[in-house]
Amino acid sequence: MNKLYTINQETASVLDAAQAPPVMLYAFEGFVDSGIAAGLMIADTVNQAETKRLVTFKADELIDYRSRRPPVTFADGGWTGYSEPSLGIDLAVDSTGQPFLLMYGPEPDLKWEAFTDAVVEIVETFDVRLTVGMHGMPSPSPHTREWRVTGPGNSQELISQVAGSPDATIQLPGSAMALTEFKLREVGREAHTFAVHVPQYLSQMPSPIATLKLMQAIENVTELDFDLSRLEGAAARQQEQIERQVEENEELAAAIKKMENVHDERIERAASAGAAARLGAVPLPSGEELAAELEQFLASQGATAAAGPELEGNAGQDLAVGSVAQVDQQADQLNGYQAGQPGNAEAGQPADDAPHGSPEDAQGPHTEPPSFTD
Q: What mean pLDDT value characterizes the chain?
């Protein structure tokens, strides 16, 4: 038995009784999850469904406590509580009662090789038929255009069922999610990672719109069935809030219109050149564009608050504050892309006028309960 984790045998017997190879979905806190897209999915599943812990990873072996200090509670003159880091795999069921696995928690700080080897071992132990990573990523597209879902993967059949997958060869900052998929591919297991593209000026707040797009894509390839009614209501409310705030701010509306024009012109040129993404989706950015977008996003996340997603409240946040200049800048950046000059980004360096930060500051999934109430 691998020393990095323990298995709850009672839950394992429930999974064995299902007599069907399960799907495993997963996301980690600590890297990139624009709009907390995967975080909201995990929070809703954990808090609304009857999940059972199947696998518990040993936090002491994987987490650097000084880089993400767990909260402790002080009351009545002494320490009364401690929130132990939790990284594990739960057994959950979809709306039809079909079981699936859900791996979530903080991204390991240490022993990535050992951790991903352990995940591969677990996948083989429970004969997981498909492993799907999920996250949100920043996009220069405006919110008024299609929110694409893309991602790499090792199954051509899966790739054909999503909006597209980058064909370029690029290097990006590593993640436990990427290494997990890589290790699964090495042993011949089907794996995929979905990334929902979230307008960059909306990426720092919870987005049920992004989560809905992500879960619809997951349903499409996993044969899982989720009750999306509450999430659809939350997404509709967020869309209404965004539209109302844009209508009330002429400067913001003009900046978004500028972004739309650049975006549409880019699509038309790509389509005329025969470079439209598969299935008629929005043309994919080049490798240089993707790298520049990611670098700028990671740098911008230093100012992101670490508050948990409360959709009912956050859907009403003032999107206009601090957003006009950002939207306008992104439109200019798109113009630069069309001219073959994506900002000033070279060799993985952010544009000169981009805010500075680090990948460790990027916002990841949270598991506080979201509110999808009407």
A: 76
